[in-house]
Amino acid sequence: MPRARKLPAQDRRRQIIESAREIFASQSYGKVGTADLAKAAGVSEPALYRYFSGKKELFLATLQSTGPRLLEIWQEIAYDVEDPLETLWSIGVYYYDHLETHSANMKLQFLALSEADDAEIRQALHENFAGFVEFVAETLEEGKRRGIVRRSLDTRLVAWQFLGMGLTLDLMHALGFSSQLDRSKVEWWSRLYQEMLSVPTRSTVGPAVRAVSELVAPQSWPPEV
Fold first, then answer.
1. Strand partners, 153
2. Cα separation of 223 and 213, whole Å?
3. CB contact at 8 A, 55 and 32
4. What region, left, alpha or beta, does residue 147 occupy, with left being phi > 0 and alpha being psi -120 to 50 degrees?
């Protein structure tokens, strides 16, 4: 094996995590060996153990890095888009546009679910998704403060709905159903989600608003205008 270029410890650790992402995403956790991980990183197995105590610690580090990477992208979009509802629309369309490039992250999360009986792996997944939900819920709360999102909505519940849309896109892509979607359909789907959340006009309460009725406190239906 060619000798790896000497890097600062933090950079080498990051490089090992990045190479491990592809390995863990390509096969089940049980089939991955430390020799595979070291080879992918361009280091020897003894060198790998200088940064991680073993495969599980590296798997956890890889999984724990996935959520913050995605949240950083969402925060950049939020910085550039003023309207909270338009922020979520832009995130949804961006997610569709980059399904291929983030497929390793998606596969890693799905594979981690199969190992969720392990408390540490479950906790890492929990923290990732808690961060996603918090971001979306806070974006919707900002919409409430601005008077464009219905005050009666349970923002955490509809944040999970938003994540469910992304997971559906991931599944369709992974299972070969991508031909059933195109960008215009994803844009329409995202607009439908916006309509469910928006304060309705006085004259119109559309079917999308009615469809979300079960996510709203009963005493608040029909929604305020």
1. 216
2. 9
3. yes
4. left
Q: Do 220 and 171 form a contact (C-beta atoms < 8 A)? A: no
Give phi and psi for 151, each to the nearest 5: -65, -25
> CB–CB of 162/88 below 8 Å?
yes
How far is it, in rounded angstroms, from Cα 110 to Cα 170? 10
Q: Using one digit for the tens of pLDDT, what is the confidence trace for 53-112?
A: 999 999 999 999 999 989 999 999 999 999 999 999 999 999 999 888 877 888 898 899
Mean pLDDT rounded to a whole number for the chain: 85
pLDDT tens per residue across span 190-216 = 999 999 999 976 544 444 444 444 444
In this structure, what token pair is assigned to residue 43?
A: 């280091």
Q: Please give the pLDDT value at position 212.
A: 42
Question: Burial level of 102, CB count in 10 A (0-12/13-18/19+)?
Answer: middle
For residue 15, the SS3 value is helix
Domains and CATH numbers, the chain: 1-52 (1.10.10.60), 63-198+205-220 (1.10.357.10)
